[in-house]
Amino acid sequence: MQKQHDIQFQLETRFKTAIIAALGDDFADSDPMIRVAADAKFGDFQANAAMGLAKRAGSKPRDLATKIVEQLQAEEDAAQWYAKLEIAGPGFINVTLQAARLVGQLTVMASDDQLGVTPASPPQRVVIDYSGPNVAKEMHIGHLRSTIIGDAIGRTLAFQGHEVIRQNHLGDWGTQFGMLIEHLLDIKWDPNGGDHAISDLNALYQASKKHFDDDADFATRARQRVVALQSGDETTLTIWRGLIEESKRHFNAVYQALGVKLTDDDIRPESFYNDKLSAVVDALDDAKLLHESDGAAVVYPEGYKDRDGNQLGMIVRKRDGGFGYAATDLAAVRFRVSELGADRVVYVVDSRQKDHFGQVFWTVRAAGWDTIKDTNSENKTDGFAGENVGGGVRLDYVPFGTIMGKDRKPFKTRTGGTVKLAEVLDEAIERAGQVIAAKNPELGEAERSEVARAVGLGGIKYADLSNDRIKDYIFDWDRMLALEGNTAPYLQYSYTRIRSIFRKAGDVNAKATITIGEPAERQLALQLLQFPGVIDAVADSLEPHRLCTYLYELATLYHRFYEQCPVLKADDDTTRDSRLALCDLVGRTLQRGLGLLGISTVEQM
Ligand code: ARG
Questions:
Q1: Which of 157, 285, 433, 574 is found 20 to 30 A from 407 (Cα to Cα)?
Q2: What residue owns the CA closest to ligand 1's atom 2?
Q3: Residue 171 CA: which ligand 1 atom is closest?
Q4: Cα-to-centroid distance, 129 and ligand 1 (Å)
Q5: Going by C-beta distance under 8 Å and a sequence separation of 6 or more, which residues neighbour residue 199?
């Protein structure tokens, strides 16, 4: 069963049962609105449902709260659950659990590698489309967000037991390749040279664009080159492949430096769908979704209008017979659903493409392609077959905002150029090295460079992930590498503090019984027990910042606990062992949580 270790979820279930018992089946869908108590003096949790339900139930909130509490107390095992149920203010129900309840759950969590996160049931096959850089262009800081967010989402879903298929929708096709290839032929570029730098490609791309704009004769040749590329001319293809190989080398270097889980196997570029595009047009035609406009084949998704109220169309096939970005994405959905057998497809692409994905999703649903799963596909493994047939595949668009400079304009270099990703990563590690050297001059050279890498990359990733992803955020070195506040270095440092306790502790009783007596212990325990619920929330909302907030609060409560509750100098061995067990669980939760964000921990810093 799912969520069996999630105490808040269990409490919710108990409240739901009590609400139904008090008010009848009509209230089966009510949300008990359970929150962790804002102030520990009110108990562990607070249920706010009575205020919302009172009107519909035709009673006063406080009376309703009383009824719910009576039902809760009438349950057979109520005494094992509740130490106190109190009604406060207009009708809040304050819940204090039996300490043994918390301890029981903590013990389960502590003995579990998954830290209480039970395997998703049923597991889904989830396709995540992320990164998606463009061939012959250097990856810039804008690609960073998709890569980092997609990686964190993939790790989280995989941790829940879902089968994650990563798809890197590389931009390797389009009319711009005509002009680039034509230019490369002009300058006798050697596609097998192997030592071209991606920055050269960038420059060549700029040069070819200028050439195209300035020279009408070249522009004509470039257009013909597009036709040659599309019809599979060998000379043209050789150059094109050379460009792709060169670009992939660069992308892989960045992925490796970032430590994200993307490899060549995950690349399914735009060109892959070329031979599937005419079938898209045919299927849309069959579904009566295709309209002719000025010679182009167009779909008109509902709800997309221009300022004058005219329907906005999505061009599937251009007037000249060519296909564009939209057609490719439509073909990709069909492939992902029917060939890859996806139950869910997640697109991590910046917020400027909102309308594009809105239109693509509308079209997919209108054409019924979200239910065309082919259960006999050879890509399928047992256990996943046909789960969603008829149900419709869940399509998630996961947009994110822009990275801004301190001037609150899109992040640029001092001279106004685009910021290159590889350079940013190097600088992060370099700066982190300085922070670490200042903090701990004792650290040896080799260790310092390992820590600098973990902290530098962690700092960059966490600064990105800890913000509400839809918002823009400001790229600020000092903030992201600060050892205080909601930052990676703070969490990584908290982890090392715990590790240092264990270095000093000597032998540790692995079978220690956890007890919670002090308020700081209780608060820490409650926070630890939120972990499975937070993972669920991240997987559903696809918002990694919820995990960041959780980890930050965990570390903060841990430090408070550490100040108030001596661990190694505890009064007796039982308390010492119990507190060590709590420290260990916090350490493992921090490490696991950071790991899900793609951030590594170190033993010392
Ligand atoms: N190459 C695209 C860009 O740089 C991103 C691809 C996103 N994925 C997709 N299926 N359209 O804007």
A1: 433
A2: 132
A3: 1
A4: 8
A5: 138, 420
Q: Which residue from 586, 594, 569 is spatially nearest to 520, judged by alpha carbons?
A: 586
Over 70: is that where the pLDDT of 382 sits?
Answer: no
Q: What's the number of domains the chain is made of?
A: 3
CA distance to 399, 452, 455, per residue, from 481 (Å): 26, 10, 7
pLDDT value at position 99? 94
Is residue 132 within 6 Å of ligand 1 at its C-beta? yes
**Locate tokens 């939120």: which residue?**
530
Mutate to test the pocket of ligand 1, among 166, 169, 330 (most ligand atoms within 8 A of CB): 169
Instruction: Report the alpha-carbon distance of residue 393 to residue 505 in Å, rounded.
Output: 52
Statement to judge: residues 275 and 250 lie in one domain: no
pLDDT digits (tens, 9 = 90+) for 244-285: 998 999 899 999 999 999 999 999 999 999 999 999 999 999
State yes or no: pLDDT of 385 exceeds 60: no
Q: How far apart are CA 595 and CA 210, in angstroms?
A: 45
Domain membership of residue 255 as a residue range: 175-260
Q: Determine, yes or no, domain membership for 482.
A: no
Which residue, 260, 280, 296, sits at the end of a domain?
A: 260
> Is residue 159 in a domain?
no
pLDDT digits (tens, 9 = 90+) for 68-102: 999 999 999 999 999 999 999 999 999 999 999 99
Strand order across the beta sheet in which 290-293 lies: 290-293, 296-299, 314-317
**Where residue 44 sits, what CATH number does that domain have?**
3.30.1360.70
Q: Which is more confident, 31 or 391?
A: 31
Query: Whole-angstrom Cα distance, residue 379 to residue 395?
Result: 20
CATH number assigned to the domain comprising residue 348? 3.40.50.620
In a domain, 599, yes or no: no
Q: What is the mean pLDDT of residues 313-318?
A: 96
- Of 353, 355, 400, 421, the one to substitute when testing ligand 1's pocket (max ligand atoms within 8 A of C-beta) is 353
Closest C-alpha residue for ligand 1 atom 4: 133
The reply to whether ligand 1 has any atom less than 6 angstroms from the CB of 44 is no
CB neighbours of residue 77 within 10 Å: 8
Query: Is 151 close to ligand 1, i.e. is its CB under 6 Å away?
Result: no
Supply the pLDDT for residue 340.
95
47: nearest Cα among 19, 27, 75: 19
Tell me, yes or no, whether 186 and 254 share the same domain: yes
Residue that terminates a domain, selected from 260, 293, 326: 260
209 and 275 co-located in one domain: no
| Residue 245 lies inside a defined structural domain of this protein | yes
C-alpha pair distances (Å), 341 with each of 291, 333, 374, 377, 383: 30, 11, 7, 8, 11
> Residue 144 and residue 461: Cα distance in Å, rounded?
9
Q: Give the Cα separation of 88 and 359 in Å (integer).
A: 49
